[in-house]
Structure formats: C-alpha cells, structure tokens
Amino acid sequence: MLRIQSFGGWPVLARMLKNRIGRIGLLCLIGLISSALTRADDAPSKGWPQFLGPDRTGVSTETGLITKWPANGPREVWRVPGGVGMSAVVVQGGKAITLVQKQGRQWALCLDAETGQPLWETDLAPMYRNQMGDGPRATPTITDGTVFVHTGEGILAALNLKDGNLLWQLNLIEKLDAEIADYGMTSSPLVVGGRVIVTVGAPSATVAAVDIKTGEIAWTAGEGHPAGYSSAAVRKVGGREQIVVFHGNGAFGLDPKTGAELWGHDYVTDFNCNIATPIAVDDGVLLSAGENHGSVLLGLTPKGDGFDVAPRWSSLGSKSTLRNEWQTSVQVGDALFGFDNVGSAGPVTHLCCVNPKTGERNWQELRFGKGNLIAADGKLFIVTMQGELVVVKADPRKFTVLGRKAVVEKTRQAPALADGRLFIRDDKDIVCVDVRQK
C-alpha cells in the first residue's frame, strides 16, 4: 500500500506530480491511487459471518491451507475461556463472536479474532437448561455492522457489532403463542432482504421474518408445523432463489420478499429431529436426517407461482447411504461428504462420500465417530465430538487423512474458518488454530 504520509500528505504529493505530468495526468493518477487505497482499506477480510459460512453451505473459497501435517499438528494461536452452549463461532471484521452460558445467564461474547482478547459481552437472557445440553444452541449472524442472535428459549435480538449494545429484542415464542421445542430453539438467524428469519414452530407461524432495523415482524409463513432443529438457508433451486426451511415434519420453500409458500414436502422423523440444513444439489434440494431415516434429493419443476416437487433419488431406512443426524453435509465438486449415523441416535457414525446425482456411496470410513465438518482448499476440516481436529482430503475416490490432533474437550459445535484460521469451541474454551500452509 502507498503511504502518502511519507510524502508529507496529499498537497505535497500533488505539487510534485503536477510538475511532472500536468493537471489531467495528475487527476487520473490520483483517481487510480485513491481507488487502490479504497480497495485496500475497504476490502473485507475472508470471514465466516454466519452458521456454515458465507453461503451457509459449509464450504469456503479460501486457499493456501495445510497440505502437510506438522510434527505437532497445526499451531494453536490462542485459547480463552468461553462458556457452555452449542453455538458455533462466527468471524467478520476482525471479531469472533459466539453465544455462551455462564454465571447463570446467556451471553453474546465478542473476541479479537487475532489475539482472543475480549472486546465486549452482552447479557441476553437467563440461563437455559435442557436434558440434551444446557445453554444457547443457535449460531449468531453478522451483517452490516449488526449481530443477530437467537437464545435457547427463543429470544431474537440485534446487537451493535462495534460495542455489543442491544438494538432490539423480541421474544417470538411469547409473541406468536408458540412453545419452546423439546430440545431448545436452534434456528440460527438468516438475514435476507432486510429481514432476519428464524423457525419458530407456532401454530400459525412456522417461520417468522423480522425487520432488521425495527425488530417488528414483517411476515410469517407456514401453519401447524413444529419448529424442528434446522436452520433455514437461501438456495437457488428450480431456477429461483428462495428460502428453504427444514421444519419438524417436512420442508418448504418460501419467497424471500413475502414469505409465500412455493412448495412443500413431508419428511416426518422421530421427535421432530430434522436438524441438518438443506443444501442445493444439482438444482434440487437435499434433505437428510438421522434416526435411520436417510436422505432424499427433491427436484423442483416450476408450476404457476410455485413448484411441483418429486424425488430424484432417495436413500431411506436402515440401508441408507447418508443419514445426517445433526451435521450438514458439504458438496465439493462432484462429491458429497457427510456423516452417516446408524440406528436411533446411536454411537455408531461413519464418514462417507456419496455421489450427489445418484445417492450411491463412493466410500465409507466405518465408525469414524460423530462430528462436524466444513470444506476448503480441497480438504475437509472435521471436529469430532471428542474434540479432535481431523483434516481429510476431499477425495471422491478414497478416504485419506492428513492428520489429527486433540484440540478441545467434548463438543458438538461446528468449526469456523477465516483467514487461514479455524475457530473451535467446547463448553469451556474457545480456541483459534492456524491451518495455513507454511
């Protein structure tokens, strides 16, 4: 970057250049330099601003990441105390944010992404307890200087990214006469078109869209569906961008502006345990659930203002090739990588690679164990439930491990990747690990 102050500021630089190139040339050159400086200063760093990353697919475009495992594993950059909860870390603008439970309360916690130094914390709600684990479940979302959070009992709130000050909050469970889901409210806020969307599961409002500035409900959609435990996502499928929601007993697509329902599909699971986020595969929608349910790829055919829905392939039941229990699969090229859970939420989980066009299995690593994965630079970055970081090649032909290292204690939170660093947490610590290639 050109440092103007070394020339005594713009006036001195301008006089020097004017003598050499004339007024017109000077204006052109200053314009070019100003543009370059603006790009350098304003260009956003690579970030992970929401659940499952920039596009909510679990896939990052970052490159230059680890290809050879260091002798002692990737370097730990920092480690700081956090708190209880299942919320993952999000990273944007040099800040790392997650939700934790401590001191009898639920908090939004903001750290300096480079150093781990605490920047601010905001008290959100009383502590949340549940038989499946205490604390907040949903992952925050950062957009345009605002952080959107969703607590374990369903309070949606907006915070100022700079200082954590509360901008507004709304108890959607009370407002819409809903009930807290059996295992807590887990919908990570989705921001689209000036609104923040979460799944509520109220009798007359499966989904609610709230104005990001005012905190007022803009529209609701769906009736009679339990919330489930998935987070909505924007997907371009059937040739049209839409909000895809995997609720407690099925899925539907919604118009982002109005909430109008475009299509629906029943997908009933035990205890409303539809948890994985729907992903777009080959212009269709992939739904997957554990508890021996399996996966289905839905094809959407335009019809009037909406779509007809028909499975392109399905792999269901105890012989399914892919049963995502609470982990969302990722697509890398022509391969789908994910966790295949066997039985009724049992301990046996395989890591597998599936052909996304057919649902047929390419390979399977038996009893790999439960965990979460994201993808970047031709690799899978996996954090197991036991707290190990495992890096696997995203190879559709075979399973190849680059290395593995214990990083945290037992965890169910998904990792985040920003600027070559992984952000991982458990119920005690938040950890930053450098995974850049040295």
Polypeptide structure, described:
By secondary structure, this protein is mainly β. The protein folds into 2 domains: 1-43, no CATH class; 44-434, Quinoprotein alcohol dehydrogenase-like superfamily (Methanol Dehydrogenase, Chain A). The chain has helices at residues 10-42, 172-175; strands spanning 59-60, 76-81, 90-92, 95-102, 105-112, 118-126, 141-143, 146-150, 155-160, 166-171, 190-192, 195-202, 205-211, 217-221, 233-237, 240-247, 250-254, 261-266, 279-281, 284-289, 294-303, 306-316, 330-332, 335-341, 349-354, 361-365, 371-376, 379-384, 388-393, 401-406, 416-418, 421-425, 429-434. The strands form 8 sheets. It has a 5-stranded mixed sheet with strand order 1-27-28-29-30, with no helix packed on it. Strands 2-33-32-31 form a 4-stranded antiparallel sheet, with no helix packed on it. It has a 4-stranded antiparallel sheet with strand order 3-4-5-6, with no helix packed on it. It is globular and about 60 Å long.
